[in-house]
């Protein structure tokens, strides 16, 4: 029996504030996506993130988090998550980079990640990115359906992610890392596994906000942490992709707070028709 988790339920106004933080993250990631070309260093990307976040009056939430030294995690090729940007890490044609970014605005958090190819990348790498993205959106859609039916539980999300990946072929689903509650702190309960049986854990209900973040490998799922205490790599050296969105459950659907369109293009009418007002924007 899992321990009883304490989940912070947000009011519509608070979800509106989280949307403002989410849009700052979305903007930072869009700028970094556009800047990913051969010759750019991961430290260059980190600078773009910090400048964008601070110009919006927000705070890069990763910086100083348990001593983390940067505003993004920039994980290249066999690096899975939490790799620290460096001026010595210069992107090359054919690389795959996952960029994870978080911002805090007026006390509320947004957290999202993208995986991008550098220049021309192999078709297998492009497919890996799509598998990770499809898995994330399947998880978000499962949350929307589960909340709407009133019968959904947390691990329905995990099961949807796993099913999506399995359907795509032989990919590794990284364990030990996963999604999480988010709101007045970046990491809150509950932990969201990226695999597992459905129908377990707390009921999905309006006011919950979750970061959904599958980590998928082209090979085996086993990972290890490097001596820097942060960087997570695949043990078999296979390439990994990591994508993430922050989403909130509203009365009539979900709202993907770190997607510019709120998730509409991927989710259609699973997205709320009644977005809480974004005040003071
Ligand atoms: N977005 C990451 C996650 O939720 C958090 C990065 S932790 C940091 O997994 F310390 F690197 F910032
Ligand atoms: Co996260």
Describe the protein.
GO terms for molecular function: initiator methionyl aminopeptidase activity; metal ion binding; metalloaminopeptidase activity. Substrate binds at residues 82, 187. Helix 3 (123-149) runs antiparallel to helix 4. This protein has 5 helices and 15 strands. With 281 residues, it is an alpha+beta fold. Helices cover 30% and strands 23% of the residues. Residues 111, 180, 211, 213, 244 line the site of cobalt (II) ion.
Can you summarize this structure?
This protein is of the alpha+beta class.
The assigned structural class equals: alpha+beta
Question: How many distinct helices?
Answer: 5
Query: What value does the Rg take, in angstroms?
Result: 17 Å
Ions, cofactors, ligands: which are bound?
2-amino-4-trifluoromethylsulfanyl-butyric acid, cobalt (II) ion
Helix percentage: 25-40%
Contiguous runs where pLDDT drops below 50 for at least 5 residues? none
Strand content: 15-25%
Strand order of the largest sheet: 8-7-9-14-15
Give the end-to-end Cα distance, rounded to a whole number of Å.
43 Å
Largest sheet: 5 strands, antiparallel
Count of DSSP E strands? 15
Along the chain, the helix and strand elements come as HHEEEEEHHEEEEEEEEEEH
Protein name: Methionine aminopeptidase
Family: Belongs to the peptidase M24A family. Methionine aminopeptidase type 1 subfamily.
Binding site for a divalent metal cation 2: 111, 180, 213, 244
Subunit structure: Monomer.
